Request: fold
Amino acid sequence: MDVKKMKRKIMKQEVRLTNEKIYQIKADATTQALTMILPLAMLALRDSEGFGKKRLLRFHDKILEINQDMNDGRLNLADIESVIGAEVGIKFVEGDPS
Reply:
C-alpha cells in the first residue's frame, strides 16, 4: 500500500477521546509549555531582580506546585488572574498584564 492510500485510510478513521484522555492531553500541553517558559522566567528574575539559586529554586518549586493544582482542578487561570488583580492591581487582558 502506498503512502497516500495509507494516509487516506488513517484520516478516515474515527477518533474517540474520553474525558480522561482530553484531560491528560491538556495537562501534558500545560506541562510542556511550563517547561519551555520556566527557564525564561528564572533568567528574568536572576537578571532583573538579582535572584540567586535559593530563591530561583523556591520559585521553580512553587510554579510546579501551582501547575499541579491546576492539573488537579483545584485552581484555574481565571482564579489566578482574579487574585493578582484584586491583591496587586495587575489586570490581565488576553494574557497581557497592565
